[in-house]
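User: I'm new to structure prediction. If I give you an amino acid sequence, what do you actually give back? Let's try with this one:
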Amino acid sequence: MAKDKDMTFPEAIARLAGDAKIDPVWLRGFNDLSTEDLVEFKTVWAAVPADRRAAVAQAMCDLMQVDVETIFYAAFRVALDDPDARVRLAAMLGLMEDEEPKLIDPLVNLARNDPDEGVRATAAESLGRFALLAETGRLNPQRQKQIYDALLKVFRTADESSQLFLRALESLGYVDNETVAMYIRAAFASDDEDVRRSALIAMGRSQNRQFQEFVRQELTSVSPAIRLEAVRAAGELTDDEAIKDLAQLADDPEPTVRSAALESLAMIGGDKAHELLRQAVLSADEDFAKVAQEAMELYDFWHGEIDFEMANIDEEAMKPRRVWQRKATSTPKADGE
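Assistant: Good question. You get back a string of structure tokens that encode the predicted 3D arrangement of the chain. For your 337 residues, that looks like this:
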């Protein structure tokens, strides 16, 4: 990404404290703050008006989405304690890919105690990636228990169908025990479509094949939102019995369902899925063929014989929508805290 010359931290902090128009040129001055600069950032940040803090935090989030070299994690951790809920929300969004275990404590506190329900729900969602890390052995047992206890408490005490309830249920999907499986099944039986949708997300995240049949029955749902999550869950559960339905859903009237069906075929793998993807790549519909080609590349990433040292492949680009939610297959390192 082409950039104008970035400003230094002193230049950036002066513009933050003033009324300068928010611009990536000076925002990048807060990239990867040092310990010394962070002290000054905290002081100045606290004195900035709330509306400006919220706008700056959102702009920093947006910038990180388009500039992979820009990391505002240190600044966002400061913003987690901001008195304005908009800022706390933006901070959590900006930290969505941060897997530092020290982030767990503030997220647990926000999920359980924040006065804003949207903040609590986003914190519960954010804890999901740590639940996955814990489940795959990359966090120690104490952290694992802390995360599980927090999610379970907010789930049990939240109003059903509230955003907090839904996000906690989805994050609990990563936890492999019968208590969670029971809650997922109960949610799936709900008359509330949002609850059923979250149950399907949790089923996919669980990697528990006992849910394959439940997911399969929703592939023909009249609700596009339910069909979409069922398609995604079928891929995450690598349900080869769903391939026939997924092939039909590749012609679904909803573009997101069509794309998800191709991606799930790629994740499931096998000769039949490969042939369906090959046919889709040859489609006369250029947009559909492009999506199919991306799915074929995903298939090769997961199932093909690729020399990753020789191939010029962006592994991040190959990851499916919720790849960090899939169980790790390699031997992970435990958190040494």
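You can read the tokens as a compact description of the fold. Here is one thing that stands out. The chain has 19 helices and no strands.
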